[in-house]
Amino acid sequence: MKRLFLIFILILSSDLLPGQPCNKRIEGEILSDEGKFLPQATVKIVNTEQTVLTADDGSFIFDHLCQDRVQILVSYVGFSNITITLDLPIKRKINIILQRAQKVLDDVIVEGEQLRRGASQTSAILSREDLAGLHGKPLGESLKEIPGVNALQTGPAIFKPVIHGLHSQRIMVLNNGIRQEGQQWGVEHAPEIDPFIASEIEVVKGSETVRYGSDAIGGVIIVNPPALHPTEKIGGEFNVGLVSNNRMGVFSGMMEGGIKPWRHCSWRVQGSFKKGGDYHTPDYNLSNTGIEEYNFSAALGFEHDHHGGEIYISSFNTAIGILRAAHTGNNEDLQRSIVSERPWYIKDFTYDINNPRQNIRHYLVKVKAYEQIRNLGRLNIQYGGQFNQREEFDIRRGDNNTRPALSLGLFSNVVDVTLDHEKGHHSGSIGINGTLKSNKNDTQETGIVALIPDYNQLASGIFVFEKLKFNKWVLEAGGRYDYQHLLVKTFQNRTLLKPEFNFHYFSGNLGATYNWTPSWRIIVNAGYSTRPPHVSELYSEGLHHGTASIEEGLMLKEGVKITDHSHVKEEISKKIIGTLQHTKENLSLDFSLYYNDIDNYVYLRPYETRLTNRGNFPAFQYRQNNAVLTGSDVSLKYTFSEKITYKLKGSYLYAKDRDNDDVLPFIPPAQIENGVSFNVNSNRIKDLIISVNLPYTFKQIRAPKVVYPLDLDSETVQGKNFDFAPAPAGYLLVNASVSFKIPVKENTLTFSLSTENVFNEVYRNYMNRLRYYSDEIGRNFSLRLSYNFLQH
């Protein structure tokens, strides 16, 4: 069946090959409204998705075009997008002038500009068009579309981003310019962000530690909302989605506009809701995997001449069921679950979310002001306040079943002050920031000892970042110093102890870009950063219900005093990444190689199995060793004609425990994906695109040895990393989609239908923490409708 399907695709490809000559050309320059050339602006031919970046002199070229008319979309950070229609051929060079964006969210884009437009950073972007095909998916799952980005799963609904093998507190997430502060230490604690707020999401895979410190040791995820536009008319967008596998419904709505009496003011409100029941594999129901989520955000902004401000609020609320079969009663049940092909607990489909489950609420308030100071630069002052409340419910007896087994409240305050400057070929930033966090457990509500202790954290940092352009070179350098004071409140033998930590840590990077030709670019970045261990890595103790496992911190080793942290060391990362980019005509290529040497690397390793009064669970212990992570990412897009586009993306990661010459657990396996899309336009339907993608995930051959049933006296358990089940086999999936747009007066109605796992393959994902108990979900249809009536 698969062969017939692939033969059909090849035949369809040959039938769509064009007969007209492809010898038309567009050549032009992109300038600002002040007459300055804009390097690395994005120029895209909308109906073919051909994309180029402008050279240092703002120039761009499209060659070998076939069509008689094209629509070009030009975008650049800090400027309003512009779309123009051109009749071909054009005999002269065209000039396109971008207007500086009149919006209150410049602060987000200014910060993103340092990442995206920096010489040394390797990044990838999910555009508005990309996100439209992912509506309804959580943030972590959406980011898997980017090479080098994986997800650490906990069942079918929880996805935690992994960049080059690193995750949790090593990944910085910027939510509308504010660093997201939640309980990100947990391997099943996904970012509390609604992807519907974003017009684009950018992932920076370089060592961008200069602006943000140790939280960005693995990379940065930038969630950018669309720019506010003070218009007289009200605009907006509505999205509706239906998902077949768990019978989920999704709705999102956004409206925005200006305020007539105050023409420099603008506003936006946005909300979303989704509800789904149990997911299912090709063979059985995954009981208690439902999800319910509702979110809201609002923004009010002002901009006039050289100053402006913004107030932004958001609320994220979700309830997620945890696979019931992941909680077992005794050692025999656990062993039977791991070796069995089916979970021990299977019930009929339901929308009910029962224990074990998670309830998460996240609230954010942002206040920002800026002033453009002549001959000095732009001064930005920003405050972000966040409250994150996480409740995890276990299966408990009697009335205790309604009480959470874990109840955490994290209140954080962040103040950032930055000065961005630019003069000629020289630009840069200098800034300071302060963070105050307070994390508290509600043990009276739970009635049990908390998984992580209460703590207060005070941190501050200062950074400087400079960039210089000359000839074909762009050079960058930056450095940052941070101080952190940590006060922990924990118990030992029922005695309250208050150990204190004082950390001093540094970050720095050097980068260079060589623009070999207008279409070829070489980027090299070297970064150094240090990271102090998180409270969870130090003092975790107990059952983590979301992962159905017991976790123990570094300070709980036998023979170690809980207040003596002399043996705990800071992580030290030394990363170098080199990237080769080619962007011209009908071919774009991005190929990266990276090497990350991490001293005192902290990770969770399987330790034993343990019987508790709530069941039998695998036990994991935090460990600190020297490690190396090295690999490569590749993405390629080749446009055969205006109708056919081929895409390739892949990633490979090699990880090693250098101290013990051993493998590391939960390292993403190699992946490669081939895809082809066909653009079949007609007079009534716009941008009719049919796509087929074939992602293949290899078996993780560098997985820890399997030791189960567990023999604690074996040499493997004593000296090496091990696992409770073997790495699953590799698997090939077939995904297909069709989408098109229908003009409705001056607005647009977009329709899309996608199918994942077309042939209903049975497989397990190595990066799923619950792969011990069940298969991945089966065939899944997603229907999406979007109505856009934006006024810009």
UniProtKB/TrEMBL annotation:
<keyword id="KW-0472">Membrane</keyword>
<dbReference type="InterPro" id="IPR012910">
    <property type="entry name" value="Plug_dom"/>
</dbReference>
<feature type="domain" description="TonB-dependent receptor plug">
    <location>
        <begin position="119"/>
        <end position="220"/>
    </location>
</feature>
<dbReference type="Pfam" id="PF07715">
    <property type="entry name" value="Plug"/>
</dbReference>
<comment type="similarity">
    <text>Belongs to the TonB-dependent receptor family.</text>
</comment>
<dbReference type="Pfam" id="PF00593">
    <property type="entry name" value="TonB_dep_Rec_b-barrel"/>
</dbReference>
<dbReference type="InterPro" id="IPR036942">
    <property type="entry name" value="Beta-barrel_TonB_sf"/>
</dbReference>
<keyword id="KW-1134">Transmembrane beta strand</keyword>
<dbReference type="InterPro" id="IPR039426">
    <property type="entry name" value="TonB-dep_rcpt-like"/>
</dbReference>
<dbReference type="InterPro" id="IPR008969">
    <property type="entry name" value="CarboxyPept-like_regulatory"/>
</dbReference>
<feature type="domain" description="TonB-dependent receptor-like beta-barrel">
    <location>
        <begin position="277"/>
        <end position="757"/>
    </location>
</feature>
<keyword id="KW-0998">Cell outer membrane</keyword>
<keyword id="KW-0813">Transport</keyword>
<keyword id="KW-0812">Transmembrane</keyword>
<dbReference type="InterPro" id="IPR000531">
    <property type="entry name" value="Beta-barrel_TonB"/>
</dbReference>
<dbReference type="Pfam" id="PF13715">
    <property type="entry name" value="CarbopepD_reg_2"/>
</dbReference>
<protein>
    <submittedName>
        <fullName>TonB-dependent receptor</fullName>
    </submittedName>
</protein>
<keyword id="KW-0732">Signal</keyword>
<keyword id="KW-0675">Receptor</keyword>
<keyword id="KW-0798">TonB box</keyword>
<dbReference type="InterPro" id="IPR037066">
    <property type="entry name" value="Plug_dom_sf"/>
</dbReference>
